[in-house]
Design a protein that fits this description.
alpha+beta, two-stranded antiparallel sheet
Length: 118
């Protein structure tokens, strides 16, 4: 069985410590329960938050995963800072601290012209 540590983590490094905690817990769970391992199919950022797609997780593991996901909303995806972290940026949904936010170019939003047809 492959460790979660070997699969791609499709998100910024700021969240890796959150995922590492979950991965370690799952690795030890799976070592102790080889007949009913927790399986994780994907780890990624979606709509500004961490997603961990899993099945067959025990209650304890599920709580750990939920906790990591909850923490991702308050943790900068780029640097891991937890100061001043917000999720919205014109057109993007990324969870970033103010410093990292400065380095991300906002998506260009084209203003819609309202045509009045008579
Ligand atoms: Zn940051």
């Amino acid at each position: 069985m492959k460790s979660i540590k070997e699969m791609p983590w499709e998100c910024g490094k700021g969240w890796w410590p959150l995922i590492e905690k979950v991965a370690s817990a799952i690795d030890s769970f799976n070592a102790a329960h080889p007949d009913s391992p927790v399986e994780v199919s994907q780890i990624k950022q979606k709509f500004g938050g961490l997603r961990i797609y899993h099945y067959n997780a025990s209650e304890d593991i599920r709580q750990l995963i939920d906790h990591a996901i909850e923490a991702s909303w308050h943790t900068c995806e780029r640097c891991g800072s937890i100061t001043g972290v917000t999720t919205n940026l014109e057109g993007y949904r990324l969870t970033l601290c103010p410093e990292c936010r400065k380095e991300i170019k906002p998506r260009v939003i084209t203003k819609r012209k309202i045509a009045i047809i008579r």
